[in-house]
Write a structure and sequence with these properties.
- With 390 residues, the protein is mainly alpha-helical.
- Among the domains are: 151 residues, Serine Threonine Protein Phosphatase 5, Tetratricopeptide repeat (Alpha Horseshoe), CATH 1.25.40.10; 56 residues, no CATH class; 36 residues, no CATH class.
- The protein has 19 helices and three strands.
- Strands 2-1-3 form a three-stranded antiparallel sheet, with no helix packed on it.
- Strand 1 and strand 2 form a beta hairpin.
- It is elongated, with a radius of gyration of 30 Å.
- About 8% of the residues have low confidence.
Length: 390
């Protein structure tokens, strides 16, 4: 069980509490108290070995009540409660610790930090934000407090505050935060674009570039902003720059880029660019787009020959489906039936495979996300490469 390793960490703390209690007690009570603590200690150990964590927790709670001076035991239990989803118990435990007279300043700060994390887990973001705003003034825990504040701002989609906290964290620790700040500016740019405020959107795109010079998302947003203003040549330049920076993101912008090429009458440029990308990126989306252009300009037979040659070098289920489509018009009825069955099988295979995967946590998705829904990292979700995918 996931909590067992943490529970085992409580064992030395519980054993120490027995020794500490014996040392601080009078001579007549030493034997009785140590005996009782030792009995509870081994009872808790027995529950752990028999994988009965709930009973073990109750035993360690009894140990903590016997000697309230063992603050570390309370912190370990609070962390365990939070991990188990028992947030109410964790909150009460940390609130009691903070209210305890005589608690050292160091332990009080730690208890406030833990309480803030409890509030976050419980969804009480306003309470958590108040605590972390106070804690960021304390040098020892300021980085932790700022990280939590950034997380809260992301949940509340308060991107301006998130940028402010990220810059403070960068100044305090020296940790580069440009890539994260660029994503926050992109969120603001998208919001301005949706409202039709193209001037404000462009300002945030420029600030995203200032934070991260080769920000792929800012490039895509720039291209879409140019399209919205009917600036096809500028959109083409922006999209081409993105694709050359990160060829893996080409499938995300290719439909818009091809539309811009057509409207601008740049078919030759489109074909040359797709050939360039095909050499740099093995994705099937580029191959299929180039195949369609060849079919439009040179006919089905030439497109079929080109696609067949490419599939020998880079097998692809989607590419096979496109080749079957090109072949259906030429086949005999029996051959057509066979091809249709093969295409149906290929389509079913592709339909069951996620199109994207997070490079950090492995989360799979059918649609692209700039922030991973699982691990919350930014820019880590990319198209999956392989015969049944991109």
């Amino acid at each position: 069980m996931t909590e067992l390793p943490l529970l085992f960490l409580l064992l030395p703390v519980a054993a120490l509490s027995g020794w500490y209690a014996g040392r601080k007690s009078g001579a007549r009570t030493v034997g009785q108290r140590v005996s009782r603590l030792s009995t509870n200690y081994f009872r808790g150990l027995n529950y752990l070995l028999n994988e009965q964590p709930d009973k073990a927790i109750e035993v360690f709670l009894e140990l903590a009540e016997v000697d309230k001076r063992t603050v570390e035991t309370h912190f370990a239990l609070g962390h365990l409660f939070r991990r188990r989803g028992e947030v109410d118990r964790a909150i009460r435990l940390h609130q009691n610790l903070i209210a305890r007279p005589g608690l050292s300043e160091e332990h009080k700060i730690q208890a406030v930090l833990e309480l803030g994390e409890d509030y976050m887990r419980a969804g009480l973001l306003d309470r958590a934000e108040i605590l972390f705003c106070d804690l960021r003034e304390i040098e020892a825990v300021a980085p932790q407090a700022l990280r939590h504040l950034i997380s809260i701002c992301q949940q509340e989609r308060d991107w301006e505050k998130a940028i402010e906290h990220a810059r403070q964290l960068e100044s305090l620790t020296g940790e580069p935060m440009g890539a994260l700040v660029a994503q926050f500016h992109c969120e603001l740019a998208e919001a301005a674009h949706r409202k039709g405020d193209f001037t404000r959107a462009r300002e945030h795109i420029e600030q995203a570039y200032a934070a991260e010079a080769n920000c792929v998302r800012a490039g895509i947003l720039e291209g879409r902003l140019e399209l919205a203003q009917n600036h096809d040549p500028a959109a083409i330049r922006a999209f081409e720059r993105v694709a050359r920076t990160d060829p893996e993101m080409l499938p995300e912008l290719l439909p818009e880029l091809l539309s811009a090429y057509r409207r601008a009458g740049e078919v030759d440029r489109a074909r040359a660019f797709l050939h360039e990308m095909l050499e740099r990126h093995s994705g099937v989306t580029t191959l299929l787009a180039l195949t369609r252009l060849i079919e439009q300009e040179e006919g089905r037979a030439r497109a079929k020959a080109f696609l067949t040659e490419q599939l020998r070098r880079r097998p692809s289920v989607r590419g096979q489906g496109a080749l079957i489509d090109l072949s259906l018009a030429e086949g005999e009825p029996l051959t057509r039936d066979l091809l249709l069955v093969l295409k149906q099988l290929g389509d079913q295979l592709v339909a069951g495979v996620p199109a994207y995967r997070c490079r950090r946590c492995g989360f799979g998705a059918r649609l692209h996300h700039w922030q991973c829904p699982s691990c919350k990292s930014w820019g880590s979700i990319k198209p999956i490469q392989g015969p049944a995918a991109e």
